[in-house]
Amino acid sequence: MSAGSVLRSAFTSKLYVTVLVAIVLGAVLGFVAPGVGVALQPVGTGFISLIQMLIAPVVFCTIVAGIASAGELTSVGRVGVKALVYFEILTTIALIIGLVVMDLFRPGGDIHADPGALKLSGTAQQYVQTGESQHWYDFIVNIIPKTMVSAFTEGNVLQVLLVAVLFAIAVKALGERGAPVVRAVERVGDVLFGIVKLIMYLAPIGAFGAMAYTTGKFGASTLASLGGIVALFWATGIVFCVVVFGVVARLCGIRVLRLYRYFKDELLITLGTANYEAVMPQLMRKLEHLGCPKRIVGLVVPSGYAFNGDGVCLYLGFASLYIAQAFDVNLSLWQQIGLLAVFMITSKGSAGVAGAGFVILAATLSTTGVVPVAGIMLVLGVDRFLSTMRGLVSLCGQMLGSIVVSRWEGVLDLDRAKQVLAGEEPAGATESVPVA
Questions:
Q1: pLDDT single digits (tens) 171-228
Q2: Are 396 and 243 a contacting pair, CB within 8 Å?
Q3: Domain tally for the chain?
Q4: In a domain, 47, yes or no
Q5: 22 domain-assigned
Q6: Which residue, 59, 93, 144, 145, has most beta carbons within 10 Å?
Q7: Does 24 map to a domain?
């Protein structure tokens, strides 16, 4: 195959390659002709507007489907509840660590972008509110929509969350009669994420315009800051996998590094594709081979892909504070706790969907009223590098989910697990599926 054919194949099948090239071209244009770069701002903001128009319906469908799935999970009893507890604890820890690391290192603090220079419609116009703090009763008043429809037309994500939760609870209360409604919402969600996928094909154009604008407007400090956040995110992800998951593994009686060596093929696939959903079948087989009961693996792993996105939560904390720092927005402790609370809801139910993290980030930023939603263009250019570590952290969380629940239930074959992780063939392994 000729070099030209390889290049064309990369551009048509690898979107991130095209995005990276567009970023480089946009950065060069911004440096060489700053005026032209600044004039391309509508290209980037137009892409953001396309994402924004999907925020409300995507959040609604995601939350309704997620609560429906949670209901099915808890209906199986003790195992399902334990799985949900583990998922919520680990994802909350990931969110907190992401926020704390960004507060400590502040990689976006040197950009000093001007929020007044960004003009978008809808909730993105709600930027920096200087010196005013909202009372708790303002929050309660603002979260209640005038009508169910106005929550969507006004783009108020907190109101959409309220409507979605009430709708999901009402549908679940219908029992079997509500099942067709849940399936219909799930299908609508599939269609909406299909639209997201189509829009993401415009990402190279959006990235080109956004990078040309940011480098033309703010100079080289933006590029240096982007490199800093990638390095910091990877370092934090590695520490999270070794330390946090290491403690969890030790509580279960195993060594986490041996566990990673056992799942090295799955880790390498995720490293190359930035998609950890592709390894789910082999992950389940290997967990059964390790000594986790099939009934637990069959429940915990699929639900974990929806509710246990540790890497996604780590990313959300990083990206939200990076954007705030880039625009010199100092979020108070209570504002960060508010972000944490919303992320805990919106991060569920959309794992593995292309572009879903982007929508979740935009949706949650719009609830703050102080962080420019258009700032997500600042992380679009390096999202591929961030998403790779995002996938690796989430995959490590999936590895441990079934082990934790099995150990908690007292049904983990720990002797077998130690033998497998040590590279030995355990007794009775002939009935197990082969592993690479």
A1: 888 888 888 998 898 888 888 878 877 877 787 887 788 778 767 776 666 667 777 8
A2: no
A3: 1
A4: yes
A5: no
A6: 59
A7: no
What's the CATH number where 127 sits? 1.10.3860
List alpha helices for 106-244, DSSP H: 136-143, 148-153, 157-173, 179-200, 203-218, 221-239
Q: How many CB atoms lie within 10 A of CB 434?
A: 8
DSSP H helices, 278-309, are 280-290, 294-307
Based on C-alpha coordinates, what's the Rg of the chain?
22
- Smallest CA-to-CA distance from 364 within 345, 387, 351, 390 is with 345
Which contacts qualify for 190-194: CB closer than 8 Å, 24 or more apart?
A: 192/54, 192/57, 192/58, 192/61, 193/58, 193/350, 193/353, 193/354, 193/355, 193/356
Q: Give helix 15-32 / helix 3-13 axis angle, nearest 10°.
A: 100
Do residues 46 and 120 touch, judged by C-beta distance below 8 A?
no
How high is the pLDDT of residue 354?
44
Q: Does 177 reside within a domain?
A: yes
Cβ-based burial of 333 (10 A; exposed 0-12, middle 13-18, buried ≥19):
exposed
- Domain around 369: 37-219+232-426
* Residue 239: count of CB within 10 angstroms of its CB: 13
Q: What is the mean pLDDT of residues 305-334?
A: 84
Q: Is 390 exposed, middle or buried (0-12, 13-18, 19+ CB in 10 A)?
A: buried
